[in-house]
UniProtKB/TrEMBL annotation:
The lineage of its organism: Bacteria, Bacillati, Bacillota, Bacilli, Bacillales. The keyword Oxidoreductase applies. Its cofactor is Zn(2+). Coiled coil: none annotated. GO terms for molecular function: oxidoreductase activity; zinc ion binding. This is Alcohol dehydrogenase GroES. Gene3D superfamilies: Medium-chain alcohol dehydrogenases, catalytic domain (3.90.180.10), NAD(P)-binding Rossmann-like Domain (3.40.50.720). Keywords: Metal-binding, Oxidoreductase, Zinc.
């Protein structure tokens, strides 16, 4: 079969590798029907390099079951499945508390385990979630990032009537806008430096958008819209160190900040923002991965429910549909920053 192997920073190769085989009674082999490039994949490719040289890359996706071990009873050959890409150890203190996202021995597809940028992948049955066969394969690539956002939002006080600001309108930010709408937010502000992404933000439910290239001007426009009050919940989804600092400016007194974006440079915090944490009694919450008890957790099943009902609209987020052979060039196109690339869906066939 074909698989995209990740060797070092900016070095991936499409290679012919052996088909995976059933090695334990709990194993399931899935033929990948659709996979997605995650922002963390791009950061790994461009800046950090692989966890293991030569690993098959990719962690977002799913497909059709083609083989299963003798102990697999909940999943049949022919079932359509989404893949939870993380495999917690189930034995550390965090896992024993059901906090699987905090497992300190976690294995992840595309990092420590062979990933989904391939024709087939073999995973334990516990990492698979059956999906309705009516659900388009494209949406398989969105189950995990959708669950990542919901996992974070479930930590907050978001409720009907809340006001929300979403900073960064990539895939995570655009999904956060839609979840905020589903939760019943009455006003959703969206921030990004790119106008096309802001147009998408409006399409999926943002009420007000801001092209945030200059912090002072953007803050003034935002304060005019909110009468300087700020919002109940700020969701930082860009990972930009500058945007992460500015997020504190948008929270109301007693408000919340949810950090979903991963910064790959130091984040500095002006003294006035640090004081605001105390003086305005802000609550800051981080969120990591997407899992909870019972594994893989509520966020996955709820995400599949809303995706299948078309209440989460992901088609507008897709800008490119490619084959496995196109992946090396696509990574270079993304990191060259010469064009806006939204969600990229890969079809191995």
């Amino acid at each position: 079969m074909k698989a995209l192997r990740f060797y070092q920073q900016r070095t991936v190769r499409l290679e012919t590798v052996p088909m995976p085989t059933i090695e334990t009674v709990d194993d399931v082999i899935v033929r990948i029907k659709a996979a997605g490039i995650c922002g963390s994949d791009v950061s790994r490719y461009a800046k950090l390099g692989p966890h293991q040289a030569g690993i098959t890359f990719g962690h977002e996706g799913g497909g059709v079951v083609v083989a299963r071990g003798t102990n697999v009873t909940a999943i049949e050959v022919g079932d359509h499945v989404a893949i939870c890409p993380s495999q917690p150890c189930q034995t550390c203190q965090a896992c024993l508390r059901g906090q699987y996202s905090q497992c300190d021995q976690m294995l992840v597809l595309g990092a420590q385990l062979p990933g989904v940028f391939a024709d087939y992948v073999c995973v334990p049955q516990k990492m698979l979630i059956p999906i309705p066969q009516t659900m388009p394969f494209d949406e398989l690539a969105f189950v995990e990032p959708t669950a990542v956002v919901l996992h974070g939002l479930l930590k907050t006080e978001l409720r009907p009537g809340s006001t929300v600001a979403v900073i960064g309108c990539g895939t995570i930010g655009l999904l956060a806008i839609q979840w905020a709408r589903i939760f019943g937010a009455k006003m959703i502000h969206a921030f990004d430096i790119d106008q096309m992404k802001l147009q998408l933000a409006t399409t999926v439910g943002a009420h007000q958008t801001y092209q945030s290239q200059e912090a002072t001007t953007t803050l003034a426009a935002f304060q005019q819209q909110t009468n300087t009050a700020g919002v109940d919940l700020v969701i930082e989804a860009s990972g930009s160190p500058v945007a992460t600092e500015q997020a504190f400016a948008y929270a109301k007194r007693g408000g919340e900040l949810l950090l979903l974006g991963i910064p790959y440079a130091d984040v500095t915090l002006h003294r006035s923002f640090f004081e605001k944490i105390m003086r305005h009694e802000l609550t800051i919450k981080g969120s990591w991965h997407s899992m909870s008890a019972p594994f893989p957790g509520q966020a996955y099943h709820t995400s599949i429910h809303f995706l299948n009902r078309q209440q989460l609209k992901v088609a507008p987020l897709i800008t490119h549909r490619i084959g496995l052979s196109d992946l090396p060039a696509m990574f270079e196109r993304i990191v060259s920053d010469k064009e806006i690339v939204g969600k990229v869906i890969i079809y191995p066939e």
